[in-house]
Amino acid sequence: MARAKGRATYDDLLALPDHVVGEIIGGELIATPRPASPHAVAGTAIGSDLFGSYNRPPGGGTGGWWILFEPELHLGADVLVPDVAGWRRERMPRIPNVPAFELVPDWVCEIVSPSTERIDRARKMAIYAQVRVEHLWLVNPLIRTLEIYRLEGEGWKLVTIFAGSEKIRAVPFDAIELELERWWIEPEPAAP
User: Fold this and answer.
1) Distance between CA 162 and CA 172 in Å, rounded?
2) 36 vs 113: CA distance, rounded Å
3) By CB distance 3.0 to 4.6 Å, which of 8, 30, 89, 149 could disulfide with 136?
4) Residues 31, 21: contact at Cβ < 8 Å?
């Protein structure tokens, strides 16, 4: 079967080189470079903070979530790869052995960079709202901010913005305190 001109297929996504992250958004193949160090440090710290506290069975303190790094999501015709995503165990009792998830996550975290911010804010946020993701975090490691969004009606409501080196509690993971300072790389020293 011939593909429609300009409509990306999953085969197009699979043909991308390993050094890029590929997604299909609105029929368009989007390829972005692997994350730079500020992005990687933030993603690792966020995942580590949440994985250790929440990736355990419900009933023992926090827990009750599956937190995964860069899961491939098949959301209708769109294929998205958030930096970190989470599912409540009551909705996904166990992680299926699949290459991609069709069950919509309950929470998504996108770590924005100069090359991805426009796509994350304009296109991916709209898709996440359309498929009814409940919670969205946008993290900018260059300006050291965390924006917390909650789905209300058909769109996102900004709940709060945290910045710098604050110790915070952020929904839906407000049972634990997070240290934002762990999420950022040290700034370059000023030139003499």
Assistant:
1) 15
2) 9
3) 149
4) yes
Residues facing 147 on adjacent strands: 138, 161
pLDDT at 81: 97
171 by Cβ neighbours in 10 Å (0-12 / 13-18 / 19+) ranks as middle
Mean pLDDT of successive 10-residue stretches along the chain, which has 192 residues: 64 92 94 90 93 71 84 97 95 94 98 93 97 98 97 96 95 94 83 67
* Architecture (CATH level 2) of domain 35-70+82-183: Alpha-Beta Complex (3.90)
The closest alpha carbon to 49, from 137, 142, 154, belongs to: 137
CB 131 within 8 A of CB 107: no
Contact status, residue 105 vs residue 133, Cβ threshold 8 Å: yes
For the question of whether the overall pTM of this predicted structure is more than 0.70, the answer is yes
